[in-house]
Design brief:
With 315 residues, the protein is α+β, with helices and mostly antiparallel strands. It folds into three domains: 2-94; 100-150; 175-314, Immunoglobulin-like. 16% of the residues lie in helices and 36% in strands. The protein contains four helices and 17 strands. The chain has a five-stranded antiparallel sheet with strand order 9-6-10-16-12, with no helix packed on it. Strands 13-14-15-11-17 form a five-stranded antiparallel sheet, with no helix packed on it. Strand 14 and strand 15 (274-282) form a beta hairpin. Helix 2 (36-50) runs antiparallel to helix 3. The two termini are 43 Å apart.
Length: 315
């Protein structure tokens, strides 16, 4: 019954292989009680006692690890201690502290690396397998991890490459950014305003209609464009930098860097070749931030590419 009551708030993310509790946000930041991190740590201790080898426990562990601050702690010494205690219970109950296996990494069926993993070298074995340069040819490849023995296997794959594809397709996992471009078309708009002697007057105001620019859309000098960055975050992050490269021939309408009242509360820098957003705290969920540019020179008649995603960095 306790599990059933708790798991009505359970959210699973199959893409990211995590699970977390969507707990009511009814606590203030200066209060120790009502912490969602502490609540999830207590839930992990429950799972470690009744179902340590289930799918939910491992996903909850991954979520908690991903949401550390500065990769070392959570919100306070209290919830940090509770998380570590819950992790210890989970590792002991699931048997992850007692592996006994050999692991082979194969690329296209050819062995790349073999390593033995046991309780003695659990934190010291060589855990990297690298393919550099010409060893990774163009085309499709199959990477296999073959385990013999007992114990869980965790792995990450990283690929750094230089691509000549056109357009460069967007990609992401923990943080996804999608750029959309809209041409702003002026429309007539009036509002009722008070004139001299209290008379009602029709006053013209600035009003634009957003028309989404297609791939390779064309502009002419003087056109006004709104650049919108749609941001989706899997976790809560701090000190994130988003860099949006500026197309040739356009200039931002705003010229002064600083806090401009955008929806994310980000500090904005308008540089020669890019627009940079410094985000103090990025909450889990979907966000949007935008800025305007104006076509200045004939170079802006070059195709606009809405699909190219901005750069993202974490300080």
């Amino acid at each position: 019954m306790v599990r059933r009551n708790i798991e009505q708030f359970l959210v699973r993310d199959d893409e990211n292989q995590t699970a977390w509790l969507r707990m009511p946000a009814n606590n203030w930041w200066w209060c120790w009680y009502g912490s969602e991190i502490e609540g999830m740590a207590a839930y992990l201790k429950l799972l470690a006692a009744v179902e340590p080898k289930g799918d939910t426990a491992s996903r909850l562990v991954k979520y908690l690890i991903n949401n550390r601050k500065h990769a070392t702690y959570w919100n306070s010494t209290r919830d940090t201690a509770l998380c570590l205690e819950a992790f210890a219970d989970y590792i002991s109950a699931s048997g992850e502290d007692r592996p006994d296996m050999t692991l082979a990494v194969l690329v296209d069926g050819v062995p790349l690396k073999n390593v033995a993993i046991n309780a003695a070298n659990l934190f010291s074995f060589d855990n990297q397998a690298l393919l550099l340069g010409d060893r990774l040819a163009a085309g499709t490849h199959r990477v296999e991890l073959v385990r013999k023995g007992t114990g869980p296997v965790y792995f990450n794959a990283y690929l750094t490459n230089f691509t000549l594809e056109d357009p460069i397709t967007r990609a992401g996992l923990e943080i996804k950014v999608n750029r959309k471009l809209y041409k702003l078309v002026r429309v007539d708009k009036t509002i009722k305003a008070e004139g001299v002697g209290g008379r009602v007057l029709d006053q013209k105001v600035e009003k634009f209609e957003r028309v989404e620019l297609p791939d390779r859309g064309l502009l002419k000098s003087g056109d006004l464009v709104e650049v919108e960055l749609e941001i989706e975050s899997k976790n809560d992050y701090e000190y994130i930098v988003f860099e949006d490269m500026k197309p040739a021939g356009v200039e931002p309408v705003e010229v002064r860097s600083g806090y401009n009242g955008n929806d994310m509360g980000a500090y904005v820098e308008f540089r020669d070749e890019r627009v940079v957003f410094f985000v103090r705290a990025l909450a889990r969920g979907k966000h949007s931030v935008s800025y305007r540019v104006r076509a200045k020179s004939p170079a802006s008649s070059a195709p606009f590419r809405p699909g190219a995603a901005p750069c993202t960095r974490r300080n």
